[in-house]
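User: Predict the structure for this protein chain, please.
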Amino acid sequence: MSTKRENVFLVLIGLIAGLSISIGSGVFAERETKAAAGLPVEELRTFSDVFGRIKNDYVEDVEDSEMLNNAIRGMLSGLDPHSSYLDQEQFKELQVGTSGEFGGLGIEVGMEDGFVKVIAPIDDTPAERAGIEAGDLIIRLDDTPVKGLTLNDAVKIMRGKPGTVLRLTVVREGVDQPLKIDIKRAVIKVKSVKSRMLEDGFGYVRISQFQSKTAENMVDAIEALHKESDGTLKGMVLDLRNNPGGVLNGAVAVSDAFLKKGLIVYTEGRVSDSKLRFNATPDDILNSAPMVVLVNQGSASASEIVSGALQDHHRAIVVGTPTFGKGSVQTILPLSNGAAVKLTTARYYTPSGRSIQAEGIKPDIELDQVRVSAVERSIDPVKEADLSGHLSNGNGKKSKKSAEDEDEAEESLAEKDYELYEALNLLKGLAIQREQML
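Assistant: Here is the predicted structure, written as structure tokens:
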């Protein structure tokens, strides 16, 4: 028994020391050589002891490869909620999931206290339409308890054949009882940029996720808004609510579109290749027109990079609720066996040096998510224009109907999206102030 454990112990040391050869990378070889020089011998002896006990005493026979893979998973999952080991199948699924089209529910998730936490539902997906909200804790997938599952295992269950139904049991803050929500799986096609005019001269751009072409699509959308407003936008709302993040370069390029100079974001880690700095280039696509950025607790990672950069440079006013606070960088490191390691390698910092991690971006103006409804009037108030024979004002005739239509439009926006309604009002005020200063 002891001889076998000692053999396992020696094999483990050989495996760890030999990683520098199998990976085939000069950078990794240097790191692994340093790690091997200071191996925790006693801890490895304990590991080999446990390994040997499982091999001999566990109720069923367990393959060595399965035990070692589980050990690697535990080693990584114990670091933070975002580091993990991806076997060959999981690595392939990750590559499918980042291609922009996949079968599933349409939610960005993480782990919290052993449960799956919704970072944000993706726009125009089954999860959003079913009413899943940022911050929901998923405790059961159909009849399978989430407790004890890895994040990858949970994601694998949530994905499936389009058209099939999955029942999620979720715990939501402010709701006494768990909610049971049925969601029909679908092919998720992520359209990252949407845009429209809110009112004459005031544009709206929604980014639901940062992809490689998000900045390019956003620029095209803003140019179309410019044309629609006869070449001049008085201001724009950039909506990053429930945007879980995405590609770093996409976030940098979006920020750069509105900044003429200065630092956008930088990263700090233990190794030299994790220390990066991104700076803005000249030109502002809005020609310095006022901006309001909408965020909430579902705004994470790349969304926080954009809102933090625009806030630090005083280029935009950030409105909403504090963001998620995911300020860490994960790097996918392929392994020689076809698997990969997703490892947290750095932290994000805003231009002023604020760490986003576990802090998030605090809005300049905090605005709780509320719903409003129009007040029903039994009798409409009488105005001068309602009086028989009233004089015209001489400024050109404006029909009573068009004025009522405008009121109804404002009421409709306030009822449908109160945060956006307030953002538009703030934007109008900023535009008036800018015109007075010019």
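The chain has twelve helices and 19 strands.
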